[in-house]
Write a structure and sequence with these properties.
Blueprint: H1 2-12, H2 34-47, H3 64-78, H4 85-93
């Protein structure tokens, strides 16, 4: 699941990144701003069938690895199947 999340993070970065590392920071390393972080949140909700994220339960915006752990935990809690790699690629093509 980490590979799917990092693929999405890289593709939605202001300057797309082919390979995202778990220790990279959203703002300092990948150039994310608040608008892009919201777009990423919506994409994660759609693809991973997550409940809409509230301010109290917002995903971490520090390092990519923190976000991966957050999403994996939410998917595990919900029992929803993660998207396939093909579903992620189709989602990105439709943007």
């Amino acid at each position: 699941m980490a590979a799917l999340i990092t693929r999405l993070v890289g593709a939605l970065a202001p300057e797309p990144v082919a390979q995202v590392l778990l220790d990279q920071r959203f703002v300092d390393d990948l150039g994310y701003n608040s608008v892009r972080l919201v777009e990423l949140s919506f994409a994660l909700e759609d693809l991973f069938q997550l409940e809409p994220m509230s301010v109290e339960d917002a995903p971490p915006i520090g390092h990519v690895g923190e976000l991966v752990a957050y999403v994996c935990g939410k998917v595990s809690e919900s029992g929803a199947p993660p998207p396939t790699a093909e579903a992620v690629e189709e989602y990105l093509r439709d943007l």
